[in-house]
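Quick note —
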Amino acid sequence: MLAKVEVKDSCSAWVLIGDLQVFLRIRGNRDPVSSSRSQLCDTMRLFLSIICIFSASITAGTGLQCQDCQNYASTDCTGSLAVCSGSATSCMAAVTVITSDNLSSSSIVKSCASYPQLCGVFYSITMGPIHLASKTECCATDGCNSGTPQLPPRDLTPNGVQCPFCIAEASSCTSTGNIDCTGSETRCITYSGGIYNGTQFEQKAFKGCTTENVCNVPAPPYPATLLQQGYQLSCTPGATH
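Predicted structure written out below.
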């Protein structure tokens, strides 16, 4: 909230506080040399100064502050506090872990939560031997996103759904077989587009199993996620057996 003061004469002024415009005038003896009127004018000027200081304090104090950092090589990062825009009402921390056989790659992003639909979301995708899991947590106090979200243990119980599988560094890929889906991954996914690797976007195409929320809540593009603007994602029920 900003205050703007426009002095009309020695003892009156327009005060603009946000969208509220107020005219203040000291009424009394019109004699400009009147000591009582002079004191009142001094009081008004002091009052206006207090309004300006108070308004500046409101401006500095109302913005939520969140830890802001990224690390595309581990699940740990620490950054300075950043003031969120007026539309952000919470802070977020998102962890993503990709595993393939005995290898793994992790990343974490902490920032203001510009997309509240991602708050509290856990999802996973399986593309044959490659498994991706991600979890986002949100909170609503200054600097509250300093921790690291913990991924739940992977559920390898077959759920009876089969999906076509393929993966390629290209704009599309063709499946040569199906994989058995496990746990809560009950939908088949097809993806094409760029994925951020920490330094640049890499073109990827894949098919596999995924959790249903990936299909129901469209993910925003980078930097809110690792997905490049313009990506294509679709889901199908998959075959059951």
